[in-house]
Design a protein that fits this description.
Length: 273
């Protein structure tokens, strides 16, 4: 993990993410790119009027000053930090910055959302999970001395998950963490007998050329199963593949990655399929 992107908005949640990223950087010698999104209106940015131009410059300078003060943290001493100020929407701009700097990881803070707000508004972390080509680590609360010893990776063991699985396995190796694989079996049309579930899992592991054990966990929904299983194993991190569904498909089908990210108390990292 040579390069880590950390979007911040000066909130407690984004500082939790920054502290976590700093602890990772200190351990692995990573460079942090700390990104603040000013989100100026397009009309203000593109206007040719002198008054609008001056207002935009003033707001950018003000944000840069506040950003500079925000980064004067003792936990960042000795860590390579590059501050970046942008004015577009978070989920599109972060991806562009990550690709430009060839980042290995994005670390984001999140409050999580529930109910109507989750369905119709969502969160910036949710949008990043859906859009990012780079793995996204979502942090809710600050964890002092963040260390991953037990890393739960959950998927349905379809072939499309081979690349996310490999990326999760590589990450576990880098972190020196135990990789715990789980398949959540639910009632209804997706239910599999134990025999059929292991047949599917063994085929996947054969294609992945991996010799690992997989646990089958039964629950009423995949999300509930992942959360309950991870808590029962005292996981430090939950890893998930995500389709990054958009539009009507996202509204009708939802995303397990987004649901778990929103509701988990344990840090979650997603790998886009």
């Amino acid at each position: 993990m040579k390069k880590i992107i950390v979007p911040v908005d000066f909130s407690e949640q984004s500082e939790n993410a920054l502290k976590t990223a700093a602890s990772i950087a200190a351990k692995y010698g990573s460079e942090l790119f700390v990104l603040h999104m000013l989100e100026l209106s397009e009309a203000l940015v593109s206007s040719n009027e002198q008054a609008h131009y001056e207002q935009a410059v003033f707001l950018i300078k003000l944000a840069e000053k506040r950003f500079e003060t925000f980064l004067e943290k003792p936990y960042l001493k000795g860590i390579s930090v590059t501050p970046i100020v942008k004015h577009h929407k978070v989920y599109s701009e972060v991806n562009a910055v990550a690709e430009k700097h060839q980042a290995d990881l994005i670390v984001m803070g999140s409050r999580g959302t529930d109910g109507i707000k989750e369905i119709f508004v969502g969160s910036n972390a949710e949008k990043m999970v859906r859009n990012s080509n780079v793995p996204v680590l979502v942090i809710k609360d600050y964890i002092e001395g963040f260390e991953v010893k037990r890393f739960v990776f959950a998927c349905d063991f379809e072939e499309e998950n081979l690349e996310p699985f490999q990326r999760a396995k590589n990450l576990a190796d880098k972190l020196g963490a135990e990789l715990i694989l789980v398949y959540v079996n639910t009632p209804g049309d997706n239910f599999l007998s134990t025999k059929d579930a292991f047949k599917k899992i063994n085929k996947f592991l054969h294609l992945a050329k991996a010799s690992l054990e997989v646990e089958i966990y039964n629950d009423y929904s995949v999300e509930r199963g992942i959360l309950a299983f991870s808590e029962s194993r005292n996981a430090d991190l939950i890893g998930l593949p995500t389709h990054g569904r958009k539009g009507l498909s996202h509204f009708l089908m939802g995303s397990i990655g987004e649901d778990v990210t929103n509701h988990s108390k344990i840090p979650v990292i997603t790998f886009k399929i």
